User: Fold this.
Amino acid sequence: MHSGASITLSGVFAERLCRHLDAPEDTPFPALGPLSRQHPWLEQMQSVAPNPSNLLLGDGLGMLFIELTDRCNESCLHCYAESAPERSARLSHEEIQRVLEEALKLGDPAVQFTGGDPLLHPDLCFAVQTARELGYQMLEIYTNGLALGEALLAQLLPHQPSFAFSVYSHEAAVHDAITRTPGSLMRTLKAMRRVQAAGLPLRVGMILMAENRGMEEATFAFLQAELGLDATQFGTDVVRSTGRGEFMRNNQPDNSRLQRFRHRVDTPQEDTSAPSEEDEGNPVRQGKLCISASGDVFPCIFSRRTTLGNIRKQSLSDILGSLEQRTLSAPSTERWQQCRESLSCSDCQAIAYLLQDAGRIIPIKQGGTHVAT
Assistant:
């Protein structure tokens, strides 16, 4: 037990950890090494209990990211998806419906429509309506809001989506320099006011970098004054080293600055993919999947080096059923550091570490979720 916390581990990593815990104390466990240097308490776990599950989904799919398009009307310095106005990939009408239907066979996920900017996809309203009709309870649109006119908002309103926006500074010059789009802060604020006036929930994410270093407190105070936001509606994170963020590795703030506003920026506050406890002693971890505008399936929006499959070739169930995992026989501290830099969640870091090995390929073993307390 680590400070009263629980963790759910799944798949090959958990199976090997169990074997390691049952082995003599001096038996090496290579896959645990890089993980334990970041999370030393992993080596202190005293017991495990197996339950059927798999590495990626845990107790079921909890969060589904759908990147409707990679086109965006901004060109942010740090964009993990490398979105831009000239990009043109997008999911089709049929693909959107099929993914929403197939994901429900894997769990009861929340869904976030993102991009690029999802407002630029002609089928956004169809996507939101379909998700509601299929029974998705938590539904969020992550956007810069630049294309959120009154007519589009009126079409979305009956389906009661939540909204998430990115604001990089209370100073227009700083925000607009990061988005590389003049006037973007004022247009985003206008969209946020429209969403508020419509009575729809919203939250704000702020990515910290050298360009806006030290501005998070002032930006939050500005949003409080302008929009009445509270701390539960405002989160910060660092640039992740994927996409254009790869070129900003040395452009990171001190992680201690994240402590006050440490809500995850990428996922809704109601996200069910993080570990939770339905009842005492029964920890639950639900997984995530991301569908890109080109149909690629990733284990997380930031895990873009790890392609699980493509929905244009297989169903989600078939992708997961035939998934092959790279061997853990050649652990890499460099790869673990890479996962830490590109991913914000410890479970995503561990999964990406296991799936990115450059060694021989072996099938993932189904079954064997292990709960360590």
Notes: The mean pLDDT is 76. The longest strand covers residues 107-114.
